[in-house]
Design brief:
It is a single chain. By secondary structure, the chain is an alpha/beta fold. It has a single domain (about 5-255), classed as Ribonuclease Z/Hydroxyacylglutathione hydrolase-like (Metallo-beta-lactamase, Chain A, 4-Layer Sandwich), CATH 3.60.15.10. Helices cover about 35% and strands about 25% of the residues. The strands form three sheets. A six-stranded mixed beta sheet has the order 1-2-3-4-5-6, with helices on one face. The chain has a six-stranded mixed beta sheet with strand order 7-8-9-10-13-14. The longest helix has 15 residues, at about 190-205. It is globular, with a radius of gyration of 18 Å.
Length: about 260
């Protein structure tokens, strides 16, 4: 039985996620931006929190970790390479590691670029990937600590997951990302349709996260740097995909 995943809006535009296994009752939290929404959701559902999975060290993903841990006794998981910047870890993880959660295998992927030491969590049999600020809905995180080449490698790893994978990313940035994406690929009909759907969803106060990887592959310019049409539009027909990605990211930074 696949886990139930609950999207929790936090702070101004962050998301955290509760992952609950109906059989056995175990519950994990992905990132800890704010305590109150998490504790309220747990209480409303009668769930006990067992684990906290951190994606990266930025304050808006870890700020409430200690408060939630104190309230629930949950164990905290995160990247060993980033342990010096994370709340104290009960389990230090690295690329290629996996661990069991309620009978499901959770695979750990290093997706450095936005930060060095950023990790994602993939649950294959739940068709779910928790990507933090690496791959995002119609976008990707700004490259703060890593290199553009490193970020492209990370996105390429995520792009290789099964297309039916649901992408649970860390922020509600989709509408702004759509406006930029249309500036890169204005003739992409699937993108235009998704942009309109995003605007309608946000007007109703609905979350646009998660998305599907299939959607991202069809509409997200940061995954589409290898597309001939995008390369032509940028005058980069003969340049490597990683260089095209870097140019797209630079344009987004200045958009």
């Amino acid at each position: 039985m696949p886990p139930e995943i609950v999207t929790l809006p936090c702070l101004a535009d962050n998301y955290a996620f509760l992952v609950h296994a109906p059989r056995g009752g175990e519950t994990a939290l992905v990132d800890a931006p704010e305590a109150a929404p998490v504790l309220k959701a747990l209480e409303a559902r009668g769930w006990q929190l067992d684990q906290i999975w951190l994606t990266h060290h930025h304050w808006d993903h870890v700020e409430a970790t200690d408060e939630i841990r104190a309230a629930t006794g949950a164990r905290v998981f995160g990247a060993g390479a980033d342990a010096h910047r994370l709340p104290p870890l009960d389990l230090a993880l690295a690329d290629g590691d996996s661990f069991a959660f309620a009978g499901h295998e959770v695979s750990v992927m290093d997706v450095s670029g936005h930060t060095v030491g950023h990790i994602a969590y993939h649950i294959a049999d739940a068709r779910a990937a928790f990507t933090g600020d690496s791959l995002m809905a119609l976008g990707c995180g700004r490259v703060f600590e890593g290199t553009f080449a490193q970020m492209w490698e990370s996105l390429s790893k995520l792009a290789a997951l099964p297309p039916e994978t649901r992408v649970f990313s860390g922020h509600e940035y989709t509408a702004a990302n759509a406006r930029f994406a249309l500036s890169v690929e204005p003739d992409n009909a699937a993108l235009a349709q998704r942009a309109a759907q995003t605007e309608a969803a946000r007007a109703r106060g609905r979350a646009t996260v998660p998305s599907s990887l299939a959607q991202e592959l069809a509409t997200n310019p940061f995954l589409r740097a290898g597309q001939p049409g995008i390369k032509r539009a940028l005058g980069m027909e003969n340049r490597p995909d990683a260089e095209v990605f870097a140019e797209i990211r630079r344009q987004k930074d200045a958009f």
